[in-house]
């Protein structure tokens, strides 16, 4: 196991050539330009100071460039992950002993380390399959709910009013009650910046909207002295990277840290792999979920060591990297150096950045999380999956983002169970002039075979669906013509049967035997055949009634014979 846990150092720079810098340097500068506004704005979602976002945007890409497998993905602060982080930080603070002070930055750093540890543990156990645990519809619905929560969270920043309630409707009701306290210059400026974002997007200017908003708002703040006018600004930012200490961790409720890290990890990895696969499809780059666990683990450990918070693959930064023509992770390194220079030399400009401008950027980012076209597509493809997307969405809105994670997971499990608890079954028949067997429900021209029923069950036979399948098979037998003498189960779609399923098959055989109908099984794999042999079901049905394929079973049934092939496990 440990041999598989190799660190893929510099995989993102594999094959690097000096001439790639002509593409990677402009790409890195563009990534930094797009990343700086979100780096300053996103920490506000979790109540963290702006500099933590810049720290994460510097150290996370460096760590990913060292250990990440992809040449093109860019990591950084992510709105969805920040929303989950905000909920987790709230639960950790609530669990602190009375009289102790809670440092949100220290908690966020601890969670980043915890998330990184979960990534490494998942890689050690080769749990890249977790990437598929949250289905696309569930993630689309969940992030739509998260976006609405983020939008509601900007009410205070847009209005200048302190909002103390949580949830969806209570903050709206609170701002209505406190309408007299609204600072109208703050509101008007925030709405103006929000409109500017959409104008830039609609006119398809080459400069990203958040960059335009930051530059314009800083210039206006300097000219009109917004701070003196009562419009809140970012304030002083540290000019260096923070030192790291483990002392603050000793006073934290570690059970909440571990559980919170697991929740952030699940959402971070789920959204990261969805983004990675999406961009991989565009660029032709293969995405290995297990290798990404190492890169994303390192990219989360690094912010934890430098006073920041968990990160994920950034859609906007990766899109810019691809659009400008980045060739390797050198682009991420260039963006990190650029942001470090901004922190050192643009401190005075960033200090007067108005808070309403950040609210506008966050609101626009939140709206971009609502993938209406994908929801329409899900509705068109599967009504059931659309329902679960809505469940995930309203879970995040109604129960809070952290509880929404649990609701999303529960919805996924319910969906998976629902799909496997009631597997489809159908009778197979022949079509004149064609070979093979056909679903008689899908092909009206297919005809049953006189005296012989062939039934296909499209799912595994396990403890939670064994009774249902047994009842269905007996119901099918009830509707068979009186002259039916053979009932053949086509088991080509049955990959697994457990002891409960074996008992159900035994009961079906007994029921058919009481009707004078022989029971045969075709296409059953060797592993399941061995299990049925150990359970005594093979002896009950008769070893000669297990066939390699449906044609063999049909031929034997017509001749009134049994199979002479040896069964797995030595049964004959």
Summarize it:
It contains 23 helices and 8 strands.
Could you list some keywords that capture this structure?
572 residues, STAS_dom, mainly alpha, 59% helix, two-stranded antiparallel sheet, STAS_dom_sf, SLC26A/SulP_dom, transmembrane helix, disordered N terminus, 2 domains, Transmembrane sulfate transporter
Molecular structure report:
With 572 residues, the chain is mainly alpha-helical. It has two domains: 401 residues, no CATH class; 147 residues, 2-Layer Sandwich (Transcription Regulator spoIIAA), CATH 3.30.750.24. The strands form two sheets. The chain has a six-stranded mixed sheet with strand order 4-3-5-6-7-8. Strands 1-2 form a two-stranded antiparallel sheet. Helix 19 links the parallel strand 5 and strand 6. The radius of gyration is 30 Å and the shape is elongated. 48% of the residues are buried.
Write the layout of secondary structure elements.
Blueprint: H1 21-41, H2 50-67, E1 75-76, H3 79-94, H4 104-124, H5 136-153, H6 155-159, H7 169-177, H8 184-203, H9 209-224, H10 254-283, H11 289-305, E2 312-313, H12 315-324, H13 330-345, H14 347-351, H15 355-369, H16 372-381, H17 383-398, H18 401-421, E3 424-429, E4 438-439, E5 452-458, H19 466-478, E6 486-490, H20 499-514, E7 518-522, H21 526-534, H22 537-541, E8 546-547, H23 550-559
Parallel strand pairs: 5-6, 6-7, 7-8
Antiparallel strand pairs: 1-2, 3-4, 3-5
Helix pairs in contact: 1-2, 1-9, 1-12, 1-13, 1-15, 2-11, 2-13, 3-4, 3-5, 3-10, 4-10, 4-11, 5-15, 5-17, 5-18, 8-9, 8-15, 16-17, 17-18, 19-20
């Amino acid at each position: 196991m440990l041999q598989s846990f190799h660190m893929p150092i510099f995989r993102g720079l594999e094959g690097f050539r000096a001439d790639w810098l002509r593409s990677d340097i402009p790409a890195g500068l563009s990534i930094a330009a797009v990343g700086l506004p979100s780096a300053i704005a996103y920490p506000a979602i979790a109540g963290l100071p702006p500099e933590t976002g810049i720290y994460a945007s510097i150290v996370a890409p460096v760590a990913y460039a060292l250990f990440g497998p992809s040449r093109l993905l860019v990591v950084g602060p992510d709105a969805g992950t920040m929303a989950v982080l905000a909920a987790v930080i709230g639960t950790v603070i609530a669990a602190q002993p009375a009289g102790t002070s809670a440092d949100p930055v220290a908690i966020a750093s601890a969670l980043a380390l915890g998330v990184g540890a979960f990534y490494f543990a998942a890689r050690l156990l080769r749990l890249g399959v977790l990437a598929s645990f949250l289905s696309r519809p569930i993630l689309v619905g969940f992030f739509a709910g998260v976006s609405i929560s983020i939008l509601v969270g900007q009410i205070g920043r847009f209005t200048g009013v302190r909002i103390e309630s949580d949830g969806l409707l209570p903050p709206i009701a609170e701002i209505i009650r406190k309408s007299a306290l609204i600072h109208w210059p703050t509101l008007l400026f925030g709405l103006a910046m929000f409109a500017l974002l959409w104008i830039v997007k609609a006119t398809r200017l080459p400069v990203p909207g958040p960059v335009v908003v930051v530059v314009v708002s800083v210039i206006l703040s300097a000219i009109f002295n917004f701070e003196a006018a009562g419009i809140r600004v970012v304030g002083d930012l540290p000019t260096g990277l923070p030192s790291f200490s483990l002392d603050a961790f000793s006073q934290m409720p570690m059970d909440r840290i571990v559980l919170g890290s697991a929740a952030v990890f699940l959402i971070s990895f789920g959204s990261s792999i969805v983004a990675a696969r999406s961009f991989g499809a565009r660029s032709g780059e293969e995405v290995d979920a297990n290798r990404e666990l190492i890169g994303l683990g390192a990219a989360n450990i690094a912010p934890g060591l430098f006073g920041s918070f968990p990160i994920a693959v950034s859609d906007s930064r990766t899109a810019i990297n691809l659009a400008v023509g980045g060739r390797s992770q050198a682009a991420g390194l260039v963006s990190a150096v650029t942001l470090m220079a901004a922190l050192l030399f643009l401190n005075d400009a960033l200090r007067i950045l108005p808070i309403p401008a950040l609210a506008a950027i966050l609101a626009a980012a939140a709206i971009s999380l609502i993938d209406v076209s994908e929801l329409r597509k899900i509705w068109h493809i599967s009504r059931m999956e659309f329902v679960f997307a809505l469940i995930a969405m309203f879970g995040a809105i109604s129960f809070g983002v952290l509880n929404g994670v649990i609701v999303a997971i529960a919805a996924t499990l319910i969906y998976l169970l629902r799909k496997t608890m009631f597997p489809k079954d159908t009778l197979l028949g022949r079509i004149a002039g064609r070979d093979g067997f056909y679903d008689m429900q899908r092909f009206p021209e297919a005809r049953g075979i006189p005296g012989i029923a062939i039934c296909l069950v499209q799912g595994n036979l396990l403890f939670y669906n064994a009774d249902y399948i047994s009842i269905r098979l007996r119901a099918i037998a009830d509707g068979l013509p009186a002259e039916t003498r053979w009932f053949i189960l086509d088991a080509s779609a049955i990959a697994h049967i457990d002891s409960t399923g074996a008992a159900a098959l035994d009961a079906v055989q007994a029921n058919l035997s009481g009707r004078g109908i022989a029971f045969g099984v075709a296409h059953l794999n060797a592993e399941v055949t061995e299990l049925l042999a150990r359970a005594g079901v093979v002896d009950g049905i008769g070893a000669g009634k297990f066939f390699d394929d449906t044609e063999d079973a049909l031929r034997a049934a017509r001749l009134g014979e049994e199979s002479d092939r040896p069964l797995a496990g030595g049964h004959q």
